[in-house]
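Backbone-to-sequence.
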């Protein structure tokens, strides 16, 4: 017979913590480049991390805020340039 080890509960928490950190990093990076892609990804990752009960709630909320800021920066530059992208 072949037995597999039971899954540990802490794996889900580590995944949620990783998603919180990833949302923060992608949200921060999205302020500089590819905010049309990285902003929504940061929002989704932060929301998933909060939903899964991450221990890094502050990091997840920062990622959520930065993701929203990415989209707001994109909207501001779109209004200024009348295009879907922005440049310096």
């Amino acid at each position: 017979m072949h037995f597999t080890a039971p899954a540990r509960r802490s794996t889900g928490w580590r995944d949620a913590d990783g998603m919180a950190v990833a949302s923060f990093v992608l949200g921060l990076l999205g302020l500089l480049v590819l905010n049309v892609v990285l902003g929504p990804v940061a929002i989704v990752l932060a929301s998933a991390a909060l939903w899964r009960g991450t221990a890094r709630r502050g990091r997840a909320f920062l990622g959520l805020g930065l993701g929203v800021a990415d989209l707001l920066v994109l909207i501001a530059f779109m209004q200024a340039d009348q295009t879907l992208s922005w440049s310096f």
